[in-house]
Amino acid sequence: MIVRCKNKVSGFTLIEVVLALSLTTLILGLLSTSVFIVTEDWNRNSDVLDTSLDEALAILQIDRALHGAFPHSFTNAETLSRQVYFIGEDDYLSWVSSVSPQRTPGLTTWEVYSVDDEGVYLTMVPAFSDNPTERLQEAEPLLLLPGYKVEFSYLYEELDENKYWREDWEGDELLSLPLAVYVLFEPMDDNDNKEALEIVARIRSNEHRSIRPNTSAEATL
After folding, report:
1. How far apart are CA 27 and CA 23, in angstroms?
2. Partners of 217 in the beta sheet?
3. Reduced DSSP (H G I as helix, E B as strand, rest coil) percent helix, strand, coil of the chain, to 5
4. Mean pLDDT of the chain
5. Nearest Cα to 110, choosing from 91, 85, 90?
6. Domain-located, residue 28
7. From 84, 149, 188, 212, which residue has the greatest number of CB atoms within 10 Å?
8. pLDDT value for 102
9. What strands lie across the sheet with 119-127, from one edge to the other?
10. What is the pLDDT of residue 87?
11. How far is CA 94 from the centre of its chain?
12. Would you say the pTM of this structure is higher than 0.85?
């Protein structure tokens, strides 16, 4: 008996190979597009989170520095009188604080103001026994909050113990610090997604131990 075996060779046709490659290319394209979209969303959300954290950290630093405001006194070279350093306007504030971001010993002079179309700037220099104004002018400011503007108000107590908020505070004239400082950071662009930020900082060491403002009774003497 003669048995004949026929070997059958199976394989893919050219059409099947082309279809498989086409399907593979389509699936890879969809996967890469999905990964790209997810990555962009993640980066966008991460950027927003980083910005929020930066803003929160900046606000926290200023808040702590205002709570630690110190009635730093120095001698006026012209009048030889003692003055308290605290320059407060509605859009500018410079004060001496016992708080330093670098945790360096000694007092630190802080300066906060805003520039149109740029943002809120911060300048810091050491506070020695003199007037730190010249050192502030020579120091390089840091753009702390881009796209924001700042406004200040200062809590004042009259002799009859009535309190009200005023738009300026001259430490060299009042010889003391305000009871509290209110800070409002507003976005410059109304169409921006940024929100207004606020600080209400109570100043505990508002008076110098040896320097007191003149009272009405003392003025009559």
Report:
1. 6
2. none
3. 30, 30, 35
4. 80
5. 85
6. no
7. 84
8. 67
9. 142-146, 119-127, 107-115, 92-97, 86-88, 169-170
10. 96
11. 15
12. no
Q: SS3 for 13?
A: coil
Domain limits for position 175: 53-220
Local confidence band at 183 (pLDDT 50, 70, 90 cut-offs) = very high
24: its two tokens:
């593979």
> Is residue 15 a part of any domain in this protein?
no
- Domain count of the chain? 1
Q: 101, 68 in Cβ contact below 8 A?
A: no
| Residue 46 pLDDT > 50 | no
Structure tokens given for 57? 């950290």
Residue 89: the pLDDT is 97
Tell me the HSE value of 80 on the side-chain side, using a 13 A CA sphere. Answer: 0
Residue type, 9: V
Report the b/e string of 38-67 with b at 16+ CB within 10 A.
eeeeeeeeeeeeeeeeebeebbebbbebbb
Lowest mean pLDDT among 132-141, 177-186, 189-198: 189-198
Residues in Cβ contact with 128 at an 8 Å cutoff, skipping those fewer than 6 apart: none
pLDDT band at 36 (very low <50, low <70, confident <90, very high): low
